[in-house]
Amino acid sequence: MKSVVSALVIAVAFVVFALHAPGWAQAPRPSQHGSVSQQIGGTTITIDYNRPVARGRTLFGSLVPYGRVWCPGADYCTTIQLSADVKINGQALAAGTYSLWAEPQADRWTMIFNKAQPVFHTRYPADQDVLRVQSTPRQGTHMETLAFYFPVVDGNHAELVLHWGTVVVPLAIDVN
Fold first, then answer.
1. How far is CA 50 from the centre of its chain?
2. What DSSP line would sit under 31-99, residue for residue?
């Protein structure tokens, strides 16, 4: 009887371990987590997001409709953390952590910094917007998986871009 109970305890422990061990009994998520952090002068900027994949789909104007607020990411909303006050496209944004949203158009995007976070990516809390800036998208090489990166960092200035498919949305960042 003791050996049956011991075997049962071992089996239950194995199942519990298998279900909770990272990467062991779980399939990879379709939208993998990503983050990028950049030092600009004395300021650190970190973007945390989940990275949706294009998978041959038409992205902007179709999967992501023009004129509708969208979270550039998947699952929980993308966040941007600022260790000090900055200017985004010439407009002031205080140090802190914000959810990041976008309203795409074919020729102009509105990037939205919102104080609600964490928040699920489909529940846009419009009453908590802190800053909206305009950006003109440009064409780039195809990026299969959504990416944020800093292609330019120079002293107290940097460019942060959102890049998915062939659309590149730049944001100019200035620090003191």
1. 6
2. SEEEEEEEEETTEEEEEEEEE-B-TT--TBTTTB-TTS-B-SSSSBPPEEEESS-EEETTEEE-SEEEE
pLDDT in tens, 79-105: 999 999 999 999 999 999 999 999 999
pTM for this prediction: 0.82
Please say whether the beta carbons of 94 and 85 come within 8 A. yes
The answer to whether 150 touches 158, Cβ cutoff 8 Å, is yes
Would you list the domain boundaries of the chain? 1-28, 31-175
76 φ, ψ to 5°?
-80, 150
Cβ proximity of 173 and 160 under 8 Å = yes
- d(C-alpha 93, C-alpha 86), whole Å: 5
Checking if the pLDDT of 7 tops 80, the result is: no
CA-to-CA distance for 148 and 166, rounded, in angstroms? 13
